[in-house]
Specification:
This protein has a domain of 135 residues. It is mostly helical. Helix 3 runs antiparallel to helix 4, helix 4 packs across helix 7 and helix 5 runs antiparallel to helix 6. The longest helix is centred in the middle third of the chain and has 29 residues.
Length: 197
């Protein structure tokens, strides 16, 4: 069974009552699944896949290759644009945004069943969640099938609570930041025209 040591209390500007309620409910749910072999394998794998937005850049790379092979330059440009936006999004979130909040990480899980890269940045907002929901917003706009993309983004984001490196409210905040930045980026850098060759 995975054991968790109490973590430091988050700063007052983050720990409002509704944030504490979200964290309490989310941690209760995560605690029921931790220590189950199948859940642990899936969550640690998803957490690793989300590191450095690997899963999202992989999807974009695959789409770009398909667009190149099928002689669909519009598809290739869309994929490269998505990855470009995500690089900027992660630089913003993992830089100035996290520096504003400086939230402490939750309690440390002392016996991780699988390998895990220890994060050193602020807990709020979750970079995995912001990247996932930014990617899902862009993918849904370009390729449709929003349930698939938002479902994958939610799974990657939740994995960070399961492995014990984020508070549930970090995930909610990250998701909101990711969607907001994706929509802002779309205004600044609109999708390429399908007619352009």
């Amino acid at each position: 069974m995975t054991s968790v040591e109490p973590g430091p209390v988050p700063p007052p500007h983050v720990a409002s009552r509704w944030v504490r309620d979200i964290d309490r409910a989310g941690e209760s749910l995560a605690g029921r699944l931790r220590g189950r072999a199948t859940a642990d394998r899936a969550m640690y794998a998803l957490s690793e896949a989300g590191t450095h937005s690997s899963v999202w850049h992989g999807i974009n790379l695959f789409d770009a290759v398909v667009g190149t092979v099928a002689d669909r330059p519009h598809q290739r440009r869309q994929a490269l644009r998505r990855s470009g936006i995500q690089i900027v999004e992660q630089a913003i979130v993992n830089g100035p945004v996290k520096m504003v909040f400086r939230r402490s990480r939750p309690g440390v899980i002392t016996d991780h069943p699988h390998s895990l890269r220890a994060p050193r940045t602020s807990s709020f907002p979750s970079g995995h969640a912001s990247a996932g929901f930014c990617a899902a917003t862009l993918l849904a706009a370009d390729l449709g099938h929003p349930v698939i993309w938002y479902g994958l983004a939610t799974s990657v984001a939740w994995s960070r609570v399961h492995v014990g490196v984020h508070h549930p409210s970090d995930i909610v905040g990250g998701a909101m930041v990711g969607v907001t930045l994706a929509k802002l980026a779309t205004r600044i850098w609109p999708p390429p025209s399908a007619r352009r060759r």
